[in-house]
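Before relying on records like the one below, remember that each one covers exactly one chain. Contacts with other chains, cofactors or solvent are not represented anywhere in the record.
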Amino acid sequence: MMHHELTAIYFMWKRELIRFYRSKSRIIGSLGMPFFLLAVVGASLNGVFQLPGGGTNYLQFMTPGILGMVLLFGSVFSGVIVIMDRQFGFLKETLVAPVSRTSIVIGKSLGGATTAVIQGLLMLIIALLLGVQLDLANMVSVILLMALVSTAFVSLGIALACTMEDMHGFQLISNFLIMPMFFLSGAMFPLSTAPEPVRLISYIDPLTYAVEALRFFLIGSSSIPLLTCIGVLSGFLIACTLAASYMFGKIES
């Protein structure tokens, strides 16, 4: 029985990778906004934006934040695949398979997380080509952290998609959710300089802990302790996975 569940997870994971590989426009499109923010916004404000404590320029400071944005957008929007599968009939075939729906969710989550990590690595290459100085000695830790963050947000996207049948509605709702998460995460500005109400709201945002953990590994500074970030992200992953499994289990076959 366990063999069947692992096989289902593997094939769902593989299917997401094949879909991502065949969608060249998706790969290029996912890197357009990060490139613009780094090459235009980051470079323009690099000499005028004063960071607390000094030692880090603005372009270097915002790179982990833009990486967090790539992971967030790429992961949450993976949930739209559930709606596409429902519309084209593949989801119905999947639901009648002799495997648990939890295994299907895990496979989809891991597949979406893998594609998001690939997008994140491509974005880091772009940052390096633009001259951003990053600590590459911690790349293994960075990849593991990206996998943790991406899996959590893919599960969140799946949970949202399970409640909808229209792709346009999903995009509207997800944009309404992820844009505030991005701008409140401290990706573009230091949390220490934010007004107190904004800073308090930022501490509720799970992406804040992802960005700060990425900063710790990539540029060696973080305003939140690393263990706190990992603990919050792990709890968020468990909550999102349980929510996705529950919502996916309620879909009628």
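The radius of gyration is 18 Å.
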